Amino acid sequence: MRSSRPALKALVLAPVLALTLGLSACSGDSGGSGGEGGDGKGTQKVRFGYIGDYNGASLLAIADERGLWKKQGLSADYKTFTNGPIQIQALGAGDLDFGYIGPGAVWLPATGKADILAVDTLTYADRVIARPGIDSVKDLKGKKVGVPEGTSGEMVLNLALQKAGLSEKDIQKVPLDATTVVSAFVAGKIDAAGFWYPAIDTIKAKKPDTKEIASTEQFTDRAFPTAFVAGTSVKPALREKVVKVLQEANDWRFAHPKESVASAAKLLKADVSQVEKDASHVRTLSTKDLVAKTGDGTVAGWFKGLEDFFVSTGQLPAAKDPKEFYDGDLYTRAHAR
Asked: For 125-203, where are the E strands, in sequence order?
């Protein structure tokens, strides 16, 4: 694990500004079903972090609209963040109870910083983008490449470099927070970036000649799960209630894809067409399917594949049994009750 890296520490602690869908302000209040202390009727409030995109927002929006928190005796206070590592930091500091991470942050639960409670989606939104004149990953040699460290942006960059027979030593890696990637790329201060949709749309709106030279869609031998996580001190009873909310919201989303886009757009205060485009990079699964894939070891295999990759990049010292950080028993039990 590279938790001692100054650049990653800066990423986790750096303040960020609201910019667009997918670049929401760190710890910004974006509502939820309850305010401070719940609704005064004996409900328990949970503090839930998410990234401002379809993956992070859709289930929370559905849970709000359909009264699923109240059904479990809960109310929820939502906070938006620009990436998963910042949420893991907030969980560790006791500022959040639950959060959402992309596949590029799975190395943090694998180090014991949080526990994965549920798979959200399989996502294929991560890209390596470049300025005109850079036509392939091999062309990145010696170039300045911006990346939010510890995130899916770093993950797709390293995957692409490995496939091209290169490493981070062959490029000028520039650690940046997510908001700064946008401004730096648009201003021409970096030549390329490891980044993700929907934030890439913001760049393309200003730089329509931006090229995509690598994508997670190219790595068909791997899965890229997004996930909901809990702080390690959150008690089992509360975890189960929250998983029940997520499972019911997940099944409604699976059965109502178009309506779920509209719900997410409402929470994100974004155009439906923008969120629909974002959702096109996502594969949803029913809770029944996720329970079955948990039982047969498929989900553990997804996480193990990511662990092995993060060992190869030095972010993890060694892989461990995914059961140590993914509570598949809880996920299965919550669905049965």
From this structure: 126-130, 144-147, 172-175, 192-196
Query: Residue 228 pairs with which residues in a beta bridge?
Result: 100, 118
Structural domains in the chain plus CATH codes: 6-123+224-336 (3.40.190.10), 126-218 (3.40.190.10)
Q: What does the alpha-carbon distance between residue 185 and residue 328 come to, in Å, rounded to a whole number?
A: 40
Question: DSSP assignment of 197-216, as one string?
Answer: TTHHHHHHHH-TT-EEEEEG
Q: What is the pLDDT of residues 212-245, one digit of tens each?
A: 999 999 999 999 999 999 999 999 999 999 999 9
DSSP 252-300: HHHH-HHHHHHHHHHHHT--HHHHHHHHTTEE---HHHHHHHHHTTHHH
Is the model's pLDDT at 23 over the cut of 70?
no
pLDDT at 2: 34
* Nearest Cα residue to 97 out of 45, 26, 52, 55: 45
φ/ψ of 62, rounded to 5, equals: -65, -45
